Amino acid sequence: MSAQKPASWAYAEEFVTEDEVVEQARRRGEELGAVPVGNGAGVLLRLLAATAKARSVVEIGTGAGTSGLWLLQGMPEDGILTTIDVETEHQGAAKKAYAEAGIAHQRTRVIAGRALDVLPRMTDGAYDMVVVDADKREYPEYVDHAIRLLRSGGVLVLDNMLWHDKVADPAARDEETTVLRDLGKRLRDDERLVPALLPVGDGMFAAVKR
Q: Taking each helix axis from N to C terminus, what angle separates 39-51 and 66-74, rounded to the nearest 10 degrees?
């Protein structure tokens, strides 16, 4: 298999460009230290939300709202994004981004708190899509909840699943890399899912729940 050329990779990542509101949200995220999803990852989120006709989406890790904006662009006009983050400053930036995009306030539920405290209170099988982009060490627990929350045919997405090119390197044994590597293999073999690992951004794992 031939290696992908860096020029082709960069071309694909920027093939669909971000709009001004997304760009502003991304810059705010960078200033706050809330690393935003890259352009290619955002485009993929929008595509998956549109493909699933996702009216009910859960996002674990709000950041400054970049990924939420992409998701909302792909969701139907009556779709609701529920986004959870422990950092209230980040969520304030996200709310500003949603307002700048002209998104009606009733279309977003911004929940401040630790995701592992919030997720157990959410309804089984009630969501069309769950996106995970938060504490890497807690990904396995997030995923257990996410699969429970998804309806049949719902979409699971995990960001950073190649983790700075370290997941593919057997010599990389730090805790976060090991957690993500082991989780990816577990989900690949999970018969409840139809999985794919995509070399977009920092690596996006996507799966459909059977």
A: 30
Q: Which amino acid is at 207?
A: A
Structural domains in the chain, sorted by start: 6-209 (3.40.50.150)
**What pTM was estimated for this model as a whole?**
0.96
CA geometry: angle 193, 141, 201, nearest 5 deg: 65
Based on the number of CB atoms within 10 Å of its own CB, is 33 exposed (0-12), middle (13-18) or buried (19 or more)? exposed
What is the rounded CA–CA span in Å between residue 154 and residue 129? 5
Residue 170, pLDDT score: 96
Kindly report, residue by residue over 16-25, the tens digit of the pLDDT: 999 999 999 9
Q: How far apart are CA 183 and CA 87, in angstroms?
A: 25
| DSSP codes joined into one string, 67-86 | HHHHHHHHS-TT-EEEEEES
Sequence-ordered list of residues with C-beta below 8 angstroms from that of 47, at least 6 positions apart, any chain:
74
62-107 confidence digits (pLDDT tens): 999 999 999 999 999 999 999 999 999 999 999 999 999 999 999 9
Measured distance CA(7)–CA(4) in Å, rounded: 9
- Model confidence band, residue 2 (pLDDT cutoffs 50, 70, 90): low
- Outline where 14-114 has alpha helix (H): 20-32, 39-51, 66-74, 88-100
